[in-house]
Design brief:
By secondary structure, this protein is an alpha+beta fold. It has helices at 37-46, 97-108, 127-137, 216-224, and strands at residues 2-8, 27-33, 51-55, 60-62, 65-67, 71-77, 82-89, 113-120, 143-148, 160-162, 166-167, 170-177, 198-204, 207-211, 214-215, 240-243, 250-253, 255-259, 264-267, 274-277. Strand 18 and strand 19 (264-267) form a beta hairpin. Helix 2 (97-108) packs parallel to helix 3 (127-137). The two termini are 40 Å apart. 36% of the residues are buried.
Length: 279
């Protein structure tokens, strides 16, 4: 396997002359950041056989650090591993994230499947139910990694990309196949919790209404102070931590929106059990 990474700052023309990885059916381009139609067409022209998957972000991570308003392209060329792709729009499943996930998993499932990498719209899709859909179809030894697209601090629209499609409400998945592939993965959180732990007394899906029978947004405001004026963008710095009494691990829920009329907080995934604000 060979890998290369190209960082484009969005100013001058994108130069692909330094990329030594060749265009093959076993080549994967992973694209993060602001992909416009011109750059998309340029990549398809130079890599017509290759597979592409990517999304908009809230900051692009490269080997050199984190950037804004850039495009990070990682080229991966496999020697023996084959690639298949599937992409679906949420609207085609009447808003059922689980049904969408199970459809993608069914598309990619085969005896030699080793791993699935998925990128999803970050505002319309509930990641929990999307993962549930994958798990309902896949055997236990097939793991799924990936993430939700970002939109900087705009909270307006996220984009997911493939070589053939680009838009919001889209979920794309790459299947990797072959006995010669070994997969490992990991995750780490960097948040430190503060404030008292409270019980979720009312929530529906990814919408939180009450904490300890109190208006959830009012409780949140009590911790943020003047930063409440910058919501929902300031919520990126103060997500919510969820503790599951039946598990040792804790989960972090990113704030997507707030609704003053009913005092609710909308997060990227469903909100069960206990939680507290984060620093």
């Amino acid at each position: 396997m060979k890998t290369e990474q190209l960082v484009w700052n969005g100013q001058e023309s994108l130069d692909l002359s330094s990329v030594s990885i060749t265009d093959t059916p076993n080549t994967l381009l992973m694209i993060y950041g602001l992909l416009n139609e011109h750059i998309s067409a340029l990549l398809k022209q130079h890599f017509p056989q290759s597979h592409m998957i990517g999304c908009s972000t809230s900051g692009e991570i490269s080997n050199d650090g984190v950037m804004d308003n850039s495009l990070i392209i990682t080229f991966v060329q496999f020697e023996k591993t084959s690639i298949r792709k599937s992409a679906r729009y949420l609207i085609d499943f009447q808003g059922s994230c689980k049904a969408l996930g199970s459809s993608l998993a069914s598309d990619l499932l085969s005896e030699d499947l080793r791993h699935i990498f998925v990128l999803s719209d970050g505002l319309q899709v509930d990641g929990t139910y999307l993962v549930d859909g994958f798990k309902s179809v896949l055997p236990d030894h097939i793991k799924v990694t990936g993430g939700l697209a970002g939109d900087c601090v705009n909270f307006a629209e996220t984009q997911v990309y493939t070589e053939n499609t680009r838009g919001s409400g889209l979920v794309a998945a790459i299947g990797l196949y072959g006995n010669d592939l070994e997969i490992s993965y990991g995750s780490r959180g960097g948040w430190c919790s503060f404030g008292m732990e409270r019980k979720v007394t009312r929530s529906e899906g990814n919408v939180l209404f009450e904490l300890d029978n109190q208006n959830a947004l009012e409780v949140y405001h009590s911790y943020l102070g003047d930063l409440t004026k910058e919501l929902p963008s300031s919520g990126l710095r103060f997500p919510l931590e969820i503790s599951d009494p039946e598990k040792d691990t804790k989960l972090v829920r990113t704030l997507l929106a707030t609704e003053d009329s009913n005092g609710s907080i909308v997060s990227a995934r469903h909100t069960p059990h206990l939680l507290s604000p984060q620093a």
